[in-house]
Amino acid sequence: MGTATAGKSGAAPTAWRNWAGNVTAAPARVVTPASVGELQEAVRRAAEDGLRVKAVGTGHSFTAAAATDGVLLRPQALAGIRSLDRPAGTVTVAAGTVLKDLNQALARQGLSLTNMGDIMEQTVSGATSTGTHGTGRDSASIAAQIRGLELVTADGRLLTCSEKENPEVFAAARLGIGALGIVTSITFAVEPIFFLTAREEPMGFDRVTAEFDQHHAENEHFEFYWFPHTGNCNTKRNNRSQGPAAPPGAVSAWIEDELLSNGVFQAANSLGRAVPAAIPAIARIASRALSARTYTDIPYKVFTSPRRVRFVEMEYALPRERVVGALRELKAMVDRSGLRISFPVEVRTAPADDITLSTASGRETAYIAVHMYRGTPYQAYFTAAERIFTEHGGRPHWGKVHTRDAEYFAEVYPRFGEFTALRDRLDPERVFGNDYLRRVLGE
After folding, report:
1. 425-440 burial, b for 16+ CB within 10 Å, e for fewer?
2. Is 393 exposed, middle or buried (0-12, 13-18, 19+ CB in 10 A)?
3. What's the rounded Cα separation, in Å, for the pair 177 and 54?
4. What pLDDT sits at residue 140?
5. Is the pLDDT of residue 280 over 90?
């Protein structure tokens, strides 16, 4: 169950801030439950005291989804693998388990998740509740790999959910944005560990957009990055292979992952923040510095990479057939504007899934993510990008910056009313409410 610590309630408000530093909160009290029973008691007590409750993971969301002025629950003590069912191909883990720890523990057991996002610093409950995803022709989001979960509801009950048990709650709570209750454990589908061969290759913008459908069809996992102010992209194709492991050499890995992606990238962004006019020249140099490379390793070592340069991000999910047009519009907008964008734009894909408020719910999906270095004004760029994305029926990532509201979501999610009706039933008093949920789900 991980390390047990006594459930603590701080009397004085404790300031909380997210990873990017763009969201802060001053809760009335912070509780670190050492058991599910203590978490249930914390929810009951908060409801009695007329306080709202939010659980917070590692703060990797850019929205105020977890912010509260009431009771902030930190589930770090609820961590670790609870059970492993090899015949069923499932693992049950406590909600506060960090993805990095889960991936490493599974690898020691000769197992792996099928797909994951590009970082693994988040808790399993935080990542799934906001719709964290990787890229994939056949699989993408972590929530779509959930086979069961336990949820503490507003009255303090523990609800077990799966396709067989409370299926209507299961359909929604796999990606619940914290609106339906506090997730205490998750059962994931896992499979025997396998090898992925990654092929990274620079490619021109016109070529990669013209060949996008082909790359998607031919590769299990395809993604690319476009460097604004240039016609340059970097592509990445991950496909299963027989192995053996052939990771990047130590020097090559350090140059690509540490120096270019973190060290030099940090310095370049700091320079760009101080001297915005230098950004296009920096982008041209940076986009040409990356070279083609091929390597093979176990999944989490290929899917994920360290991200130490802090940024703010917006990401929209579009119908997959609309993504190339939207990206070309984004490039044209940047080219004719006075904007100076130092971060590459990321494009990934996901198959349709059946999760009520998943960004890929009911449709084949592609994602466009735009980023700005922390501390630089991002509003003008994000506003212009969001205008393009919404014209294509885009759905914003629940944990990333956006300005959409419940009226918009009711248009782009056919099952939106199903989710809000379930919320009315499970949390009529809005014990788990906050300002963000009021905006995106309505009153």
Report:
1. ebbeebbbbbebbebb
2. middle
3. 10
4. 83
5. no
- Pick left, alpha or beta for residue 319 (phi over 0 → left; psi -120 to 50 → alpha; otherwise beta): beta
* Buried-state track 101-121, b at ≥16 Cβ within 10 A, e below 16: bbbebbeeeebbbbbbbbbbb
315-343: average pLDDT? 96
Are 181 and 154 spatial neighbours (Cβ–Cβ below 8 Å)?
A: yes
Contact at 8 Å (CB) between 70 and 27?
Answer: yes
Closest CA to 77 of 126, 10, 26, 5: 5
Peptide bond into 244 cis (omega under 30): yes
Biggest CA pair distance of the chain:
60
> What is the tens place of the pLDDT at every residue in 290-302?
778 899 999 999 9
Angle separating helix axes 279-289 and 264-274, nearest 10 degrees: 170
In sequence order, which residues have a C-beta less than 8 Å from that of residue 88 and are 6 or more positions away?
none
Q: At 373, is the secondary structure helix, strand, or coil?
A: strand
For position 6, what pLDDT does the model report? 32
Compute the distance between CA of residue 149 and CA of residue 36 in angstroms, rounded to an integer. 13
Phi-psi label, residue 335: left if phi above 0, alpha if psi -120 to 50, beta otherwise? alpha
How far is the C-alpha of 346 from the C-alpha of 134, rounded, in Å?
A: 11
Q: Can you tell me the distance from the alpha carbon of 400 to that of 394, in angstroms, rounded to the nearest whole number?
A: 13
42 is written with which tokens? 């914390």
Alpha helices per DSSP H over 279-378? 279-289, 299-303, 323-336
Kindly tell me if the per-residue pLDDT of 309 is higher than 90: no
pTM confidence score: 0.92
What are the residues facing 162 on neighbouring strands? 148
Q: pLDDT digits over 390-424, tens only?
A: 999 999 999 999 999 999 999 999 999 999 999 99
At 253 the pLDDT is 63
